[in-house]
Amino acid sequence: MGMGRLGSVLVVVAGVLLGCGGGGGGDDRSGDRATVEISMSSGARAVAGRELVFAASGSTASGSPVTFEWNFGDGAPMATGGLVQHTFSDQGHYTVTVTLRSQSGATAVARRDLDIVLNTAPSDIVIEWPSQTIPAHAAVHFVGRAIDADGDPITYRWNFGDGQTATGRALIHAFPAAGSYNVVLTADDGHGGVSQTAVPVSVVSAAMPLPVPEAKTWAKHTTGFSGALYASAWPTPTTGYVGGESGTLLRSEDGGATWVPRPVGATDVTVRALHFFDADNGLAATSGGHHVVYHDNGYTVYSDWGRLLKTSDGGRTWVNLDAGYTGPGASDFHFIDRLNGWAVGANGFIAKTSDGGLTWTYQRSGTKQHLRNVQFIDALRGWAMSEKDTVLRTVDGGATWTATVLPFELDYLDGMSFSDDRHGWVAGHRIFMSIQFLFRTTDGGVTWQRMPGPPDGAIHDDGPSAALGDIVATGPNSLYILDLSGDLYATTDAGASWNLKATTNAANGYAITDLTIDTARTAHAIHYIGGQVFSVSLD
Prior knowledge:
By secondary structure, the protein is mostly beta strands.
């Protein structure tokens, strides 16, 4: 081994005595005193086959010139010099020794122990793509992911099974014809560590029409309010409520055709969630610009100020429930009857009431993510959805919550809906790739499988986000998906096929949200940046 270019940062361990692995004193029989230290470009663990850099520094009390001799403990020839390079071929435990020799005759020895391990190939390799069935010639986003335990950069190589190959972690590919393709991803760490995974991709004819039979046009209603709407509730087919910024709350008694104000009593708050038990009795959750301190089973959390209000006369008057609720602004709440309900909000906030909202008990969620949605099937079984990638579930009324992280990396979750204690759906999206994700559970949220949504291109994606407006499950295999442009799709076979049920026939931007289906099978939604309300019969 000889001198070479220093290609790594050296880790220096100084001041360690002889025999302790770093530096040592020397033989002073010559009347001179010598010391030496070892530095190297790795810690106490390195990978076989990688070039390592070793440096020695030392001196004598007299300042006599010194030389360095290296023994790497693997049978390789001795190396000389203050800076050397060496590669260990085999795994094992080695002791690296450097000896300082001076012209005065003084010597010093330092040792470093080093464990050499074999290279580890990349693991946990997965392929993400937007749909299990895609049309020919469509631009499809593929993303590869893998983990390298040695910290090596990973090269991703793709074989799409159609004669085309590519390199890169994230890319776009179009299949030339209908058929079944086996997409293979190879992850290479550059040091002989290679892993592969593959997924079958079904490509259908590009001539397949988008699902448009029986499509209706949403009826659009003006509310007289031009600000942002965030929440709605339809306790009966004719009676509905919408709420939004500036403390706005409006009521309709004719299915949305006309609206009258029912303000909550403050203009510096935003109505975030609504729940009505019947046409006149309900709750509203607001958030404001203040902050509140609340305690979550030992945690002190600072959050947006929230207030719950209750009405028993259709919103003509509102009673503040401040005495029993001091949490953050609730993003959602759900009641299984007039007494028992749950609220969720920022910083993993969950609270339960057993007296119709008069008092609340905080529950430990186990997460500090913002919780967007909550739903209970009965007094014991329920779910809460975070803003990003997690679904919480409980089987004891919220006394304990268990988190499941969805199997794909997401930027945002858009909606959650369960039809019974086993069957549920979650929708989300990734902004960077403009991809929608749809997940389904058949075991109450213990596991989730990604499911095909409407065919690629059906969901409008002409804005800065691929977000969905909302979802509503109406049966074990039945789901409605609302995209933000107002297109409403339905499946009755767990996503195997989709029908376009309603459209606005207009470019409304990314604004139509909060899908509700009333007891007469009329769907309602709100245009959150325009103060408009939409409705359409699903029969």
